Records
---
Amino acid sequence: MNTLILGTAIRLLVPVFQLFSLYILFRGHNHPGGGFIGGLIGSIGYIFYAMAFGPKSVVDMFFMRLYVEDRADTRSRSQQLLQTIKKNTWQRKKTLEQLKKGEKKGIHLEPMLLIATGLLLAAGSGLAGLLLQQPYMTALWTDVYLPILGKPGTPILFDLGVYLMVMGVVLKITFIMSEE
Amino acid sequence: MEIVLCFVIGILFSVGLYFILHRHFFKLILGLMILGLATNLFIFVIGRLTRGGSPIIGEEQEVALEPFADPVPQALLLTAIVIGFGIQAFAIVLIKRVYQTFGTTDLDDLDSTDQIHSPKPPAP
Amino acid sequence: MSHLLLVLPLLIPLFGAILCLFFWYRPGAQKILSLLSQLGLVSAAVWLLLQVNSEEILTTQIGNWPAPFGITLVADLFGSLMVLSSSLVGLALLVYSLRGLDAPRQRFGYYPLLLMLQLGIGGACLTGDLFNLFVWFEVLLICCFVLISLGGTRAQLEGSIKYVTINILASSFLLMGIGVVYGILGTLNMAELAQLVRAPDTNTSLIPMAGMFFLVALGIKAAVFPLFFWLPASYHTPPIAISAFIGGLLTKVGVYALVRVFTLIFAIDLDRTLPLIMLISGLTMLIGVLGAAAQTDFRKILSFHIISQIGYMIMGLSLFTPLALAGTIFFIIHNILVKTNLFLISGVVAQRHKSFALPFLGGAYLLQPVLALLFVLSAFSLAGIPPFSGFWGKFMLAKGGFEAGQWLLVGTSLGVSLLTVFSMTKIWNEVFWKNKPQEEGAPSQARELPEESPAERRTRRLMYVPVLFLSGLIVCMGLYADPLISLSQRAAEQLLNSDVYINAVMYPPK
């Protein structure tokens, strides 16, 4: 689909979807909302983007293809890290062109990695209870009150894991189905 | 309200079963989806309907005000919908692959795994 | 302690699978990770069984919500025996598939799927909540869907479309049954359901109707008589490493769930349900073994025998006496090991002869005498010839049947055993005993198989390891059957005496 209206609108709407999905994610503490629905809302932006510009552009646009500076080109590990960050942020446009031409190699951040990270967070959040001789998945809360987030605890880790996983799954399904 | 929903469930079940018994792939998937919907609606209705009372405890209350809807069937429903979503996504990709491989949309053409005689092995 | 013990058999495969996902493009790392998690799973299962053996039923409440509200995990002897046998089979399968499965399939997520399947089986065996049972079944089913269609050959796609359709239908039935139970009794915790069903002031007139939903849904998953047609149409299509796992384990999980719900929840007003189950069990045995007699494919004969053996397991449930249920438990564990082993042997034969079709096989006895011996061990065990493990299971079932006065059912089961020997003899004659059939027009020297390359020989040697391991277990189970028999008798007593289960879940010791 190649429409100017959708293309222009979706560029502006993606950050809105992102913010709203994060709002829904953190709202899930004491109100309706949570990781699952937040992840779905967040992935809507990407799906529309894929509809407007094709699934490949989603990968290029949203940091799913990262460039890692070669260790041999740099003097130290910290410089390598700096170079990597630099080339992926403000020099990203140039790097992307180089990646496309095949001059440099990037690593692909698959939706599978998003799924795996989400699963690890969600399943790992339950382990805290086990360490304290409580049943698995026992909710543990800290006593600190943060201004927007509220009280942090292990359930927010679980929700964050679900959020990432849902996003990964939806993206993976979209990519598979749009492969013709 | 329950009576109307009961009839809707019945109609959905019969439509779903009719589509499943159809020979076309696409109708098979449609049938499975409709059957899933019917099942979800069935659980929702059998958990008793309460209108207008969401099971949310307000700021000043200790317990939710009567009458409130039973949240358990809703939770079951949500889980079942999510699971159904995943399975349907898989089934759609599967029939797409089957169509690409076999070049047919007729389920009756897929009968080789039921036959007794196995094919000859390829020559070494 | 029980908090950790009960979740370990679930967490080890779960984290193993997650780590495998991180190493998606590196099958070598996945192999090591999944081998480690399988070993960990076996040791966790042994530990769980030892603890359950010494201190009755263990429970834990996920998330620390008290019993009827939260999600309960329960381990009694039956459940932990199932977890142990599935983990043993999983370990053997993993070793087999290190070399026995082609590289493209290994790259496409075979190892994480195998671990997730283990997770689903473990969850289904340990859960104490009816809806969770459904969820775990979906977990293992969706892994199974992907495993069956993994690779996407014609036969696999065809088999998986049949498998997927019938299993989605079965899941809808299961969900409806759960909805009906919730509508009648207002809870889904199995222990509380058992308590409510046995309470004098509960209206239980609709409970058997809900039981029928479960009988149909779990009957499809366990492949009992009128609902088994999907099994022989799909189980033989994937590579042997996959079909051995699902053929050996999945239907038994269905039987496990049947036994669990019918001893715990639908255990009242059984005077109409039990004769129905009895009829189903007799017909399942008979039709399965007759279906096998007509087949000419190694794997398809074994698939039909799965159905026939399911009949024996249901037979113990239908008799509903302690001895018969103990027989069922023993038989399930024996069958998981033996059936997997037979599938693996067919895989080893096919690795050398490149075919599963009986008319094109032959002469395996000359080439692989050790394999022939291992096949005879497993085949005799499957048929129930003393002193192998199948004998003890069938002996307990038959004795239970005689004590209950069900002469016809016992007669059927013994006749079916004879027919099983017939099928196994057929495989023996065709695969191992007769000469390799000659190609038409080929010179007489072509009778010998082509010389195998060193890589193939190494592959075959590694494939022998799991077969030897499982055969050793089967022989041990037969010759030293006493501990397992007494364990299954105690497990059957636990099943029939539901007060222990209810107390362990509802009123846990502080």
---
Amino acid sequence: MRRIRRVSLVDIILLAIRVVVAIGVVIGTYATLSAGKLTWEQWRDLLIFGVAQGSVYALIALGYTLVYGVLLMINFAHGDVFMFGGMTAFFVADALGSSGFLDANPIVGMAIVLVVAMVSSAAVAILLERIAYRPLRRAPRLVPLITAIGASLFISNSVRGLYGEQVKAYPQLKILVGKFEIFGVGILKTHVVVIVSALVIMAALYWFVEKTRTGRAMRAISEDKDTAALMGINVDRTISITFAVGGMLAGAAGVLYAIVFNQVHWFMGFLPGIKAFTAAVLGGIGNIIGAMLGGLTLGVLESIGPNLLLSGLGVPSPNQLRDVVAFSVLVLVLIFRPYGILGRPENR
Amino acid sequence: MRGSASQLRRAISLGLITGAVMLYLVAVGIVLAFSARNTITGVVTLGRLMLAAPPLAAGYVVARRGTDLAPRLVAGLLLGAVSGVIVAAALLFASAVDIRHILVRISPPLLAFLAFDQDASIGALLNLALAAALGLIGAVAAVVPSRVRRPAITGVIGVVVISMLEPFLRPRLTDFKLEGVSRFLFTHKGLSIASAIVVFAIFAVGSVAWPRVRARYRARVAAADPGTQATIRGVTLLLLIVFLLALPQIAGSFLSQVLVFVGLYTLLALGLNIVVGYAGLLDLGYVAFYAVGSYLTALLTSPISSLGVGLPFWVALPIVILGAAVTGLFIGAPVLRLRGDYLAIVTLGFGEIARLLFLSDALKPWFGGTQGILGVPPLFGVAKVSVPILGWQLTGPTLTYYPLLFFCVIAAIVATRLKYSRIGRAWNAMREDEDVAQATGVNVTNYKLLAFALGASVGCLGGAVFATHLASVFPGTFNILVSITVLSIIILGGMGSIPGVVVGALALIGLPELLREFAEFKLLVYGGVLVLMMLLRPEGLLPDRVRQQELHEADEEEEPGADGGALTPAEQG
Amino acid sequence: MQKLLRWSALLAVLLLVLAACTSQGASPSQSAAASSAPPDAAAICAADAFHCVEVAPGDPIRIASALAITGDVAFLGNDSNFGIDVAIADRGQLLGHDVEIVHEDAGCGDAASGQTAAQAIVADTTIVGVIGTTCSRTAVPAMPVLAAAGLVMISPSNTAPSLTNPDKDDFGGPFYFRTAYNDNVQGAAVAKYACEELKVTTAATVHDGSPYAEQLQQVFADKFKELCNGTVSHQEAVNVGDTDFHPVLTTIAADKPQLLFYPIFSPEGPLLTKQTADVAGLENTILFGADGLKDGAFIAAAGQFAADKGMYFSGPDLNFGDKYTNDFLPKYYALSGTTTPLAPYHAHAYDAANILMDAIAAVAVTDADGNLQIPRDAIREYVHNLKDYPGLTGTLTCNENGDCGSSEVSIAQLKPDSTGALVYTEVWTTRSAS
């Protein structure tokens, strides 16, 4: 008797939430579409913008998910590793840009910038692991999470102190100005670059984790650290490599972010970091394809959600509430699927 | 012989790290900022001390090992010299090449400071010599017996702390007609040489005498009969109460303001402690309850809010707490089935949702959007209260302090009672292993909801006090940093430990307020402290017994020595 | 001759002081202004509603700043602090004392930090006056605290109209002054320029959830409807930290407004500016930013695009003349280490600091022991009565509610200067229009 009543209290609240959301979504969408303020082309553009923004989230989320997949810890400082790569590479990009090298040899120039970003991000990630995370590997789960939050504050504020708090403008690449025509649809070149890179990097990471020796070692550690060590896997080294790879991904994401948005600053790791974290959880944290899917879902939701659901209801400034829409969807997804879209229950 | 060779190698590598740390401190700007504060006027500034700390500490560390005197001292000297070479080289480089467009803090004043206002090459030599000397001093500290080292270190710390407190001590001493003391202690933002010696001596002697006095006192209390012991406890409690009540009068208006924020965060941390510390549910969106409490209070009490009812605070309070508990249930219900990291991100999302809704144009007619709600009346409806017999004039922070203290005490008592009750044990079981708890008949769903509702109520109470103290609410206050700060307080103090919460709030809220001039570096230091704390003392400063045992269990599996050394001392207390 | 003048001035002062002593209501500040050595400092201090700050010989005169020096708008506070530092360095010594500035952090988003900064300042009884705050919101809870201690606060960058409107609940009170102009002035000027000069009839606005941007766009929208019978199709909002503004721009583009006014800051401002190019329907929309975008960061990130687009910027009339360009700016750059100003309020901060130091110089008296006595309420009165002060930002006169700023607004565009670098070039000012 008690048991039945207990379940129904929670279920009533959940049911109420579901009903309210469902009614809101239906009415909002209907009202928006029947008002017909936006054309089909504008909806299509919104979708593309969402996919591009989502790709940036996905790139960062890949690093989150990689570390989580191996260590089952949330590297809250990953967003700041991403920021550090973008900021450090700025000085190289700026020097190359002002000397004219970047416009003369855009491919080589960007490759140099990319390498600098990846190396510096990887260096920070490795240091972070060595100094802050390694001694805590056996501590309760909350401990490394707090460490990571502290490290996040420390890195971002160090960069602020070292490089200054001003927003820094990346040189714009002339070859990336304008749009590509793909199937008769104009898409910004920068957006094409970031979407394609995200897919390529995701595929490469998937291959790395699934097919290489190191990847196998990572998966073994993820299953059981101690057994993996007994099987002759060098746990410390593999975890360092995991962080290095995660850092390189973050550095690459930093440069791609700079290409799309043309500016970097010390605070830029925070919000994208949280969004990427959300994306990774949405897709099922620890799952590489899930991270990509989560990132894209989040990007599209942010782009289309407020316009589709809220503007029809006459809500003023719907775009101000884009994060409300995004986080609400996260909550709803997790109510129905507690381990994310592609995630599986933890084995603990 | 081989031992000393490896010690020298260690000295060199540690010296390199030390040099890098020194360069970091310089480049991040913190050294120059702190050089504005005199520790001993005309002799040494806080910035100079900060730069001296790494070689001193590293010299101590490197010389701690080994048996022979000479190699240990040489190691310290070598380490200092290596770090000095790095700083000197960097100084020469930065003087020759302008790298200010990358590292913005490497300004001419900084270089002049680093070179002791000399030519760069002379400055480089001075740095080298100074660092080597500091490394040696560190090594000497490691070599001398601890009965010499401990008083010396305590004395130095005393000098630094007293000089740091100068901006607060000086006005307070003046207010208490102790200008003579103030004149003797402080000359232009620092201690004089004479007063530094006196302060050093007092602290050094104190560090020797205090343990003996304490031990004798404890022995006598232990020897006394139970009746006397009870009396002693009663008197101690009474003295504590009197002290807490008189504190704002001793502290003055600014320190009372700091105390109000310490109290506010203590209250929040007590609430979050129920959710995280007791029930083991990681909530990163605790700020949502703080915001709900503030806004509900403002809506109900402010005569110019959208409701416009202008209820007195004490009438509104039950409604606020009820509203909070309902909010806790509504946030708690959807996330009940989530565990660990999923719970963390969802609660973080709720925190952001709350902030954005209060900020939004969409709900502006109710919550005022970005312009917030003004005109929240003070707690007792009047801005000033006179205490008849003592002649105190309570206003602003000195007035808010008392109800806040009352709420904190109530929350602490409730939390303590809960902890040792049936509910507390159920939470304990749930935190250790949810599935097992469920299997043994613990109603996990109800206990989780209860934790959320209780945590929410306490958080809202904090919000209510905050709104009245500030006389207004604005959405910008309620950002994610609040959640992180409250969580850090619990972690720093020790999860599940109530005295720990107070210590955590004092350290993380009180201390930064005392160093307000350097607020720029607050978050930097704060992040560093969190990391170091987790590495060196994860159970917190004043740990909860049970929690400490949990951490020890995890430790025993590992080989001793890795970080076990840091975990020991707290048990003695 | 000079001697005679001095003696007669002294005599006049003595008489005035005597008068002040007998009739307590009289103002001591006028009397003290004329000389530095009246013998009756004690009487002046006793008569002052908030008594005196005593500065012993050799001690510095201390003032405080309460600005946002941490957080995401730290550049605004640092910009103002550099302005104050230049003012103090220019002054050298004041009445034979050094001037020392205590930098407090009043933050921006969190009103509580404004209150705490005020408490910290009030607790230090050697502080004579305050320059602050950066953000209007933090001034609201700070003012009651400062006023209770008799400390004047002059803000270089508060623009919320209600702070100097005695009918509002967040009125700053008698101790509050500002050298910045108020949003009503800027919003009206932009609306006026939009309809009279640009001849537009439809507009949209975007704000970033900061009280400043929200209020400014609201004033603009109201004035635009009122002055020129225009239509405001959208009043949208974005969040600080957003990077993708295409969705909000798409919403706005549905009505193809002729003008888009977005008084937001970097880094969101440059991103939004450049992303207008990607959204169909905004090709012919005139872009209009405000002073939050008049900084080096914007030029570097979106300057060329904005110049090509002919984007407009409203802001304080920064044509401060030769002294500003040739004397002030080099000193500012030496401190900041940058080649462009961090934000546009440094000159206002310079003026605010100078007004405060002038007030101190005017009202301070030396007592029998050689200590400097600075009556607090007299400072307020001096600033309150300030007239035709030749500041860097213009000729300043304080009105009865605390508005001291020159109310001249300029509209600028980005144009290349002689070296080819883009600079904000004034195209219209309220001065030239009226």
